Amino acid sequence: MAINIYLSEKYEGAMRCGGPEVLGLAAQWSVWAMLEMEQLLLDLLLHRALLPEFSRDPSYAERDELLLQKPLGVLNAALAGREFLAGGGFTVADLNVASILVWGKMARLGLSNHPELKRWLDDCLARPAYRRVRDWGRPNSPA
User: Fold this and answer.
1) Which of 7, 33, 34, 69 lies 20 to 30 Å from 1, alpha-carbon distance?
2) What pLDDT score does 12 carry?
3) How far is CA 135 from CA 51, 127, 128, 129, 138, in A?
4) CATH no., domain 2-135
């Protein structure tokens, strides 16, 4: 997260925050996502997809999904009426938070109760840069 924030400010580009207010929000959302969601999402992904079947514990996944409801609700409320987390465009805040939430998507985390969050995450993951990263190294993918 810190490296992404540093790079977004060091180089001119679409993710540059453009001022201390937006930079503060970007740092806030990035750290918040790490503290409130990252471990739960990783554990959910482990018990739904990554661990061998015999090691998965459905009760862990159920607990993780239940505990995620509060931070998902906070994020959903923050995105109501907004296209992005910080500022008027896609910033490092969106990159950092979406990069954690993609684990939930991989773990089949239900977002139907969080329509603003679902819309925002789908928009983040529809960006051409994300598709290039996702497809990197796959056969027949553009380099």
Assistant:
1) 69
2) 86
3) 23, 12, 10, 10, 6
4) 1.20.1050.10
